[in-house]
Amino acid sequence: MNQLIQLINISSIFIFIYFFLISFLYIVLILLSSNKLREFIKIVNNDVTIISNYTKPISIVVPAFNEEATIIDNIISLLDLNYPEFEIVVVNDGSKDHTLSKIVEYFNLRKIDVEINMLVDCEHIRAVYSSFALPNLVVVDKINGGKADALNAGINLSRYPLFCGIDADCIIEKNALLRIVKPFLNNENTIAVGGFIRIANGCIIKEGKLVEARLPKKAIVRFQIIEYFRAFLTSRIGWEKMNALLIISGAFGVFKKSAVVNVGGYSKTIGEDMELTLKMHEFYKKNKIDYKVDFTSDAVCWTQAPDTLKGLRNQRIRWHRGLTDSILRHKKMILNPKYGTVGMLSMPYFFAVEMLGPVIEFAGYLFLLLSITTGTLSEFFIYVFLMAILYGILYSLSAILFEVLSYKRYTGLNVITKLIIYSLLEQFMYRQLTVWWRVSSFFNFKKGSKKWGTIKRRSFQDLEK
């Protein structure tokens, strides 16, 4: 029994130090984010039409696999974007449903002959479609190779120096491209910019346009809204401030095409978006080339979130496998001063907190149960557990506050009160469930499928329910 008590005490001290350091990092990220958000708030209300005179043309690449439920709305919304010069390259990655036929029929497309510049490797392209009526819409039909391969095919077919990767189940706001391109205009060394991903479930979307942002009815989706707030309004803004942002979301991000070609395009991994960002960090740091990976929270993309436990489980397991795979592929960057703030700050953070954090937290829950059942629960262990919970709540409340003070997509006392309540409830059951999923994926991440990871898509009209 004495040995058990000693083990629990040592574990308590370790977990206390671990969560204390995490909490300190959270506070730093919150402070950095609050400072950056002051700048964003001023920008949000600016007239973006002034920017349109200085923009660079963009190729929008939309990888699609079995997306017949949303692909038409997605393309309609993209065609209506407020941007001077852009093209849409939809890549049908061997879909088994009617994705391709629906696009061809709805937009009255025909096969065309085109010379393909193979800048990066991709599977065989079977056909390319376009029309005289919509010359800026190109549809590529290729053999299935996965999302990364589809994005590479889109890069090969794209004509412009910048390309925007966007998921086929997403709707981006009308001025989103004008907002996300600004860092490229402000700094010629910018190689990638991420946008703000919001959840479309519960919102009213008509003809590919967001009419009204509403909270979804399902608790499982409301919890995810809190998570997205934390990820985009605190974490990513904070890391961008240090030029140490490790991920540009695959749902909505813009890249300098030459920078992506320099690193060989997307890798065929389960976490292709993070892997690409890490490859670019490594390449530019190693070759001592000035660069900037940026994030702009006023460029908004609305995406479908899983609304079932099965769908959420599959998504979180896939995300954590992708994160683990990417971190371990680039482990030589961890605590390596040659890679600057990426090597000394963000890589150790993502390794110790994002990758190993679920394992340590799960071990803490096991020790808590063990100490309760054996009657060895100490006050110190209770304080450690409460500290972890309270700091998690603080992080969530800070993100909600940033949302209320800045972008105000969700308004009204009733809505804000619900968000606060769910930020408290999230710490119990939901948090432990997602921790367990991440732990289970961590130990078998190499066994995970490298194929498309998708949730069951629904039309955007169905998402209102």
Describe the structure in your own words.
With 465 residues, the chain is α/β, with parallel strands linked by helices. The chain has a domain at 47-309 and 455-464: Spore Coat Polysaccharide Biosynthesis Protein SpsA, Chain A (Alpha-Beta Complex), CATH 3.90.550. Helices cover 50% and strands 15% of the residues. The chain is built from 15 helices and 12 strands. The chain has helices at 2-44, 71-79, 99-106, 147-157, 176-180, 182-186, 219-241, 257-262, 272-286, 309-329, 340-355, 357-373, 379-405, 413-425, 430-442; strands at 58-64, 86-93, 110-111, 125-130, 137-142, 162-166, 170-172, 190-199, 204-206, 209-212, 252-256, 292-303. It has a 10-stranded mixed sheet, sandwiched between helices. It has a two-stranded antiparallel sheet with strand order 9-10. A hairpin with a 6-residue loop joins strand 4 (125-130) and strand 5 (137-142). The longest helix is centred in the first third of the chain and has 43 residues, at 2-44. It is globular and about 80 Å long. The protein starts with a helix and ends in a 23-residue tail after the last helix. The model has no long low-confidence stretch (mean pLDDT 87).
